[in-house]
Amino acid sequence: MARAGHFDLFQLLYGRLLIPPSVYQEVAIRGRRQAGSRELLRAKWIRRRRPRRMDLVAALRAFLGRGEAEAIALTAERKGTLLLIDEIHGRRVAREMGILVVGTLGVLLQGYRNNHVPDLEAAIARMRERGTWIDDEIVEVILAAARAR
């Protein structure tokens, strides 16, 4: 979201975010010079929370990365919570578990529909220019949904 220039959308749309320790490590520590690192460190509305179900994390780790596994487990503990995830396998697993998911482009679309993102196409272009790979077909689906507003 930082690459799109709309990191603030998380707070505007959701109020607060919970992230597991591994996601914090990946973004704030190992990715300290990458987009989103400074924003995460400054965001008082983002809280780190360790999942309680480490058995679930271990089971999910058999086929997902640590960040995805912890995020899914953390969300599973909080009924009715939305999971922000882009990784395709993680999305599939979360949906199979009955977890509601949204990805970066879905957040941008919601921000556009709520008048927080004035130019959705430009935001997506910024993400791509700054190194985010996004499938052309997915972009077309999101832009069509925006036009259908």
Residue runs with pLDDT of under 50 for 5 or more positions: none
Mean pLDDT: 94
Percent helix, as a range, is 40-55%
Largest sheet: spatial strand order: 1-2
Order of helices and strands: HEHHEHHEHEHHH
For the largest beta-sheet, the strand count, sense and barrel status come to: 2 strands, parallel
Secondary-structure-derived class: mainly alpha
Number of helices: 9
- Measured on Cα atoms, how large is the radius of gyration? 15 Å
**End-to-end gap:** 22 Å
Give the overall shape, derived from the CA principal axes. Answer: globular
Beta strand count: 4
Nutshell version of this structure?
The chain is mainly α.
Structure description:
With 149 residues, this protein is mostly helical. It has helices spanning 9-14, 21-29, 37-42, 54-60, 66-76, 88-96, 104-113, 120-129, 136-147; strands at residues 17-19, 46-48, 82-84, 100-102. The chain has a two-stranded parallel sheet with strand order 1-2. It has a two-stranded parallel ribbon with strand order 3-4. Helix 2 (21-29) packs across helix 5 (66-76) and helix 7 (104-113) packs parallel to helix 9 (136-147). The model has no long low-confidence stretch (mean pLDDT 94).
